[in-house]
Amino acid sequence: xxxxxxxxxxxxxxxxxxxxxxxxxxxxxxxxxxxxxxxxxxxxxxxxxxxxxxxxxxxxxxxxxxxxxxxxxxxxxxxxxxxxxxxxxxxxxxxxxxxxxxxxxxxxxxxxxxxxxxxxxxxxxxxxxxxxxxxxxxxxxxxxxxxxxxxxxxxxxxxxxxxxxxxxxxxxxxxxxxxxxxxxxxxxxxxxxxxxxxxxxxxxxxxxxxxxxxxxxxxxxxxxxxxxxxxxxxxxxxxxxxxxxxxxxx
Length: 250
Ligand code: PEP
What we know:
The protein has helices at about 15-25, 45-50, 80-85, 95-100, 105-115, 130-135, 140-150, 155-160, 180-195, 200-205, 220, 240-245; strands at about 5-10, 35-40, 60, 90, 120-125, 160-165, 205-210, 230. The protein contains twelve helices and eight strands. The protein starts with a strand and ends in a 5-residue tail after the last helix. Bound molecules: phosphoenolpyruvate (PEP). Phosphoenolpyruvate binds near residues 9 and 232.
């Protein structure tokens, strides 16, 4: 039985001071749950977030990292810096990074492998544009993204990774994928994992859905067979996030 997970992606919102305030608001609201809860925060907010969440089961994630450990890479943050700061998860290959920062499948794979080396759990994002969906190439494209992300990743490490299916046309648009559309792709992702690693790993790996998740649609999405929770953007900055975490009570 896979444990559900709800991860917030705060994106480029919240100063360090605002981070502590938001955590103070949300923490008591998301603490009494059997769902894994993660806050993925901007790099500068990691240290105050870790401090504000000590003595809590809520995990901290980074929104990005570089795949080198140190050196002349001005402005970048390394996996060992994240691990040392108390980070447990890192989002890799978010569509905004693919779109604005030219993150390719090859770069995603380098980051996935480096994250694993430092015992960070990568939350690997994949997803299609509206145009690609309309062309009917969604499942092929997602398969390519997943195969690329998991290149040279051993089965023991693959099973620890989290995958987030995030259709680009649903991110920040208020236009959520129907639960049937989301389930179809998440099932396709599980099949791809099965073809690479076999059934045992495929049944254990967690696959999240992301894209305009809110309190009104979380339950329907998260109770689909192959959807193990959500990666939540906009709604993760509001008390609504607690409703999404507690979706079973909705
Ligand atoms: C995201 O960017 O990861 C996301 C899912 O955003 P939103 O929930 O705002 O669509």
